[in-house]
Amino acid sequence: MSAIHVSRRLIGAGLLASAGLVSGCATTTTPLAPDAIEEVSAAPDPEAPEFIPVVRYGRYTLVELAPTVAQRDLLLQTIDVSMPEDARATVGDGLRHVLKRSGYGLCQTAHVVIELYALPLPAAHLHLGPMTLRDALLTLAGPAWELHADDRARQICFERPGDSVAIEPASEPSAVEAVQTFPLEPSVSGGQP
Fold first, then answer.
1. CB of 136 closer than 8 Å to CB of 81
2. Cα-based angle 53, 54, 57 (whole degrees, multiple of 5)
3. pLDDT more than 90, % of the chain
4. CB 62 within 8 A of CB 56
5. How many CB atoms lie within 10 A of CB 70?
6. Measured in Å, how far apart are the chain's first and last C-alpha atoms?
7. Where is the region Disordered (predicted)?
8. pLDDT average, residue stretch 105-114
9. Is pTM beyond 0.85 here?
10. DSSP per residue, the chain
11. Number of C-alpha atoms within 13 angstroms, CB side, residue 84?
12. What is the pLDDT confidence band of residue 97, given thresholds at 50, 70 and 90?
């Protein structure tokens, strides 16, 4: 026998002996007494979720027949949007583009919001996502504006936190109000007519 073969046998025997010694030091725990075992009731949990039907979709896939959270609350849908690269794009253009296929429209209410819509769109906002629709709208508007969603009309409105402007759509001024606001005859104050 060669020296290498003998040394392999000695190493193997040493490993086997040390494994035997180590395993001899293991301790076992005593089993629990029968009265310490909790009894499990077969009654259903009162907080169990309601039954959601499933259907086999393909060979190995089961699909729940229920709408997702994003389908119930449209502001929770995940979007990944790239804005058109227009050098004169405004925040209003960005908001309209993000809302294009979301199911919501942009509120055209107060004159205060026109300030927001007229701001230039930052380069950092040319690509938004993946994020929720709500987060994308809040990112475009910035921290100085609050988002209000009218789920019945599916409109998104913004207002400043300190303003108490109503979210109702602004109505066109009546003919009487327009005449009272804008005089028909030029005023004579010494200037040109």
1. yes
2. 155
3. 41
4. yes
5. 13
6. 125
7. 171-193
8. 82
9. no
10. --HHHHHHHHHHHHHHHHHHHHHHT---PPPPPGGGSPPPP-SPPTTPPPP--EEE-SSS-EEESS--HHHHSGGG-EEEEE----TT-BHHHHHHHHHTTTS-EE----THHHHHHHSBPPGGGSEEEEEEHHHHHHHHH-TT-EEEEETTTTEEEEE-TT-----SPPPPPPHHHHHHHS-SSPP-SSS--
11. 9
12. very high
Closest CA to 117 of 136, 85, 100, 141: 141
Q: How far apart are alpha carbons 104 and 75 in whole angstroms?
A: 9
Per-residue model confidence as pLDDT tens digits over 142-178: 999 999 999 999 999 999 887 754 444 444 444 444 4
**Rg value, the chain, Cα:** 36
Both tokens of 49, joined, read 């979720």
Q: Using alpha carbons, list the distances in angstroms from residue 23 to 19, 81, 100, 135.
A: 6, 61, 69, 58
CB half-sphere exposure, 151, CA atoms < 13 A: 5
Look-up of token digits 């300030």: 115
Residue 88 one-letter amino acid: R
